[in-house]
Write a structure and sequence with these properties.
Elements: H1 3-28, H2 36-55, H3 61-75, H4 78-90, H5 94-122
């Protein structure tokens, strides 16, 4: 077994813990009705992954595995966005549901693109 796979799995656990902390910090204290914590997690994670990817061969493959697949894979979450969108829709909060779904997609894609450009520029 590749030892880097184990390190990536451990990094995924760290990423999931970070996701929880960021979400609770942003949403838990303020009691917000919109899932802003997970939005921030996914946008910042997309930016970081874009940056890592943009750096290309300047980053060792093992580091890309641990940071990209592991840490950032554990940190970001598509499934939570999906469930929160459905829950918002079930509460008939149609505007918030659409904003959560499409806003997350648009902002995360823009952040990833920015990260790619910045990362490529740093090479």
């Amino acid at each position: 077994m590749n030892p880097w796979l184990l390190v990536a799995a451990l990094a995924g656990g760290v990423g999931a813990g970070l996701r929880y902390l960021v979400d609770r910090l942003l949403a838990g204290r303020r009691g917000l009705r919109f899932p802003v914590g997970i939005l921030v997690v996914n946008v910042s994670g997309s930016l970081a992954l874009g940056l890592l990817t943009g750096l290309g061969s300047a980053v060792a493959p093992e580091a890309s595995l641990v940071l990209g697949v592991g840490l950032l894979g554990g940190y970001t979450t598509f499934s939570t966005v999906s469930v929160e969108t459905v829950l918002l829709a079930q509460r008939r909060r149609w505007r918030d549901a659409a904003l959560n779904l499409f806003g997350t997609l648009a902002l995360a894609a823009l952040a990833a693109g920015l990260g790619l450009v910045v990362g490529a520029g740093l090479r």
